[in-house]
Amino acid sequence: MDLFSLSWTALRSAVADVPDEDFDRPSGCTGWLVRDLVCHLVIDAQDVLITLVTPAASAPTVDAVTYWRLVGPPTGEDPLDALVPRLAAAYGGPELLRFHLDDVGGAAGRAAVLADPAARVGTRDEVLTAGDYLSAYVLEWTLHHLDLIAHLPSTACFPGRRAP
Predict the structure, then answer these.
(1) Among residues 40, 59, 126, 141, which is most buried (max CB within 10 A)?
(2) InterPro entries annotated for this entry (predicted)?
(3) Could you tell me the pTM of the whole model?
């Protein structure tokens, strides 16, 4: 769970360091701006909170490696794909989006620390241990950290440091 906490903290810190004007730049996620990606991270944080308090009695059906399934880039045809940019725009400026990510993201981070890694949880019609679920999110956070900084002129990779 240490890797989950480290990757989640680094990603949230990077978002906090993104200048307001860069929220309207493209992200590394095809079709999404930085603000859309940050909105997706809020949804991910909510998913972490929900999943960690959704116990499952049956045997695991996936693990940290098999949890994710490859999908194509967002086309806007899937209702969730279309929702994210509209929801991100509804936040207005970056300050409320940053606040919500910090608020919900902080709670998700605390829940992860408190979770029993052996406990079975259910999400997306699958069952896995909380430890495997959080390990799967290390991949998610790492990829989205790269997506966040893909087209930014500043170095958001290392909080507090800017490119010369």
Answers:
(1) 40
(2) DinB/YfiT-like (IPR034660), MDMPI_metal-binding (IPR024344)
(3) 0.91
CA distance 59 to 56: 8
Backbone angles phi and psi of 126, in degrees to 5? -130, 160
Alpha-carbon span 158 to 146, nearest angstrom: 11
Question: What is the C-alpha to C-alpha distance for residues 109 and 139, in angstroms, rounded to an integer?
Answer: 15
Residue 122 forms beta bridges with which residues? 127
> Radius of gyration over alpha carbons of the chain, in Å?
16
CA distances from 65 to 4, 94, 132, 134 (A): 15, 34, 8, 11
Place of tokens 């919500």: 100
Tell me the domains of the chain and their CATH numbers. Answer: 2-149 (1.20.120.450)
Nearest to residue 115, comparing CAs of 141, 133, 100, 142? 133
CB 54 within 8 A of CB 96: no
